[in-house]
Amino acid sequence: MPKTTNEKEPKKAKKGAYGAEQIAVLEGLEPVRKRPGMYIGSTGPEGLHHLIWEVVDNSFDEVMGGHADLVTIILNHDGTVSVSDNGRGIPVDIHKQYKVSALELVLTKLHAGGKFGGEGSGYKISGGLHGVGVSVVNALSESLEARVNRDGAEWEQFYEYGVAKTKVKKVKASKTHGTTITFKPDAKIFTTTEFDLKYILDHIRQQCYLTKGVRVMVIDARIKNSPRNYGFYFEGGVASYVRHLNHSKQRKHDNIFYIDKHVDDIDVEVGIQYTEDYKETVMAFANTMYNPEGGTHVMGFRSALTRVINNYARSKGYLKEKDDNLSGDDVREGLTAVISVKIKEAQFEGQTKHKLGNPEARTAVETSMGEAFAMFLEEHPRDGEAIVGKCVLAQRARAAARAARDTVIRKGALEGLTLPGKLADCSSKDPSESELYIVEGDSAGGSAKQGRNREHQAILPLRGKILNVERARLDKMLSNNEIKNLVIALGTGIGENIDIEKLRYQRIVIMTDADVDGSHIRTLLLTLFYRYFPELIDKGYVYIAQPPLYRIQKGKNVKYAYVEEEKADIIAEFLKLKEEKKKSKKDAEAEEVEEVVEEEKGEETSEAEDSVSEKIPGITIQRYKGLGEMNPEQLWETTMNPATRIMKRVNIDDATEADETFTILMGAEVAPRKKFIQTHAKKATVDV
Asked: CA distances (Å), 276 to each of 257, 270, 387, in order?
């Protein structure tokens, strides 16, 4: 019987249909567990450590508000991390709107916290702007324990996977105040749950420079009964940070310029010192958050720096009437500066906080910096003379470099398709599928040219070692033919007018021999890319090829070993196959002449054992010291074939440490380099 009702039945959703039924709503902390990368960047080591930073940021907000002066971080042996502070303690009273404890609200609701209320809110200054910090940590942890001391009592609450397992309850009376968050990262979310102590110490050291007067203790208690304690406390603020950044560099003057001013509700802290380097090192922070892309505070700093130095140079006669003003690039050559602002309503570009957008920050920095730096130059004439002398010399060198750069660009444009040097270009004009192999020597270059994929792989052989650009300005650098040819081949230009969009290859592969000279050439090239083409490294375009160390052959079976351990494993595998084959043959013969074979077997085994340590009969081992020793087929098979090759992508985990390492290894100062070599000598692989 047909239905007579007037109501229409809902239609069954067809396969692949898209309607209201397919819309899923993620409640509470579900979105965080579903898409953790949106909140902490990644589920790798960086995201894992970001959990600590989120909790530590809350403690530092208490410090910046003047409510705490001690933060303790403990790495426990059970895989948990505890972060404590002696601040006011997270409120535990019932929230009027949500009818739950404020502590539970903070731990379970995104964008819940005391950082959004403006005047009368819990915080005047905060780095954790978006308020997703500790709730995200809770969502991505197997377990979390919150312990709060305030209002004359100690309170606690326990969570598992972001879900409250207990109510907030009073444990005992307490006269102290503060918050302790102990959490264990979820092993199902993260690729690793092993914390890197050095990474933590470096980050905390930086934060302590930016928050002078705070005392931070880091305790590594992962080894039972053998904890390691580290303490940080800096009275000098960012001036101490500048001193740290320059400790391995040749300083142009002794006194560090430093200001710490409060302007229009913004705290401005700046430290400056010039060095003999040719590149600038400027670290910018807002509410202790590192801003790698700068922002309005950096714009204000640069404007004041250029104006003050030009005025001083004119007034003291270093620049004559006919002379052009010093440019921004001129006054920033060799500069080391740290700029830190603390502002109530910080406006960042996204949760990553890479760039500050507050226009009032520019005014505050420019005003305070301009007045104080002009006074510093007047009060320290020897420092002023050294600084202006450095800037004027940079102006002259920049004019020479501009002429050299224009020559290179003009040469590249005139030569058109007939690119420089011995470059064997690829036929593809699509940068995304094109590769440039920078190869050591003509011999290796010849093999690479014959063995390559001509459609996508270009080869540029280098003749000897390129110039160490750490100790040379652009004009001298471009007089080096190998560097000049490489710049033209890349197509981006160099210096002020560099344009990464014109890059001709999006894979730049450094392919050098596995010996000391090869390592040196690789280091020189990496210095060039780091100092003059940092965007190529940031975008992941620079690689290091991994040619094999050994070719091991047994009969028609050939294998390659890329490290010493692999060589031993391959030899053992070949010997095992040899013994198995020998045993199989003997088993077949045993049916006919059992006694005779048993006697021969004993003798034969003895001979085999003696020969393994000497010649390894039947196995040929070839040690590759140079790429030129490989024929084109071998080079393609082991090092250039995308299906089988191994390559290392070059990236920068810590910009400060990278800058310091290049300065030590490639700079003019001998003492820091000697100390570095002595410290790491035991880790070095010596090619005898």
From this structure: 17, 20, 10
Radius of gyration from C-alpha coordinates of the chain: 32
pTM for the full predicted model: 0.70
Half-sphere exposure of 304 (CA within 13 A, CB side): 23
Q: Closest Cα to residue 526, out of 538, 514, 543, 539?
A: 543
Q: What percentage of the chain carries pLDDT values higher than 70?
A: 83
Is 587 labeled as catalytic in the residue annotation? no
Q: Where are the domains of the chain?
A: 30-232, 238-397, 422-547+648-683
Query: 517 an active-site residue?
Result: yes
Q: Is-contact 528 483, C-beta < 8 A?
A: yes
pLDDT digits (tens, 9 = 90+) for 496-506: 778 899 999 99
Considering only the top CATH level, what class is 422-547+648-683? alpha beta
The reply to whether 513 belongs to the active site is yes
Q: Which candidate in 196, 415, 515, 604 is catalytic?
A: 515
First and final CA of the chain: distance in angstroms?
A: 95
From the list 276, 385, 517, 573, the catalytic residue is: 517
**Domain 30-232: which topology?**
Heat Shock Protein 90 (3.30.565)
Q: Is 61 a catalytic residue?
A: no
CATH code for residues 238-397: 3.30.230.10
pLDDT (tens digit, 9 = 90+) per residue, 654-676? Answer: 777 777 788 778 877 777 787 77
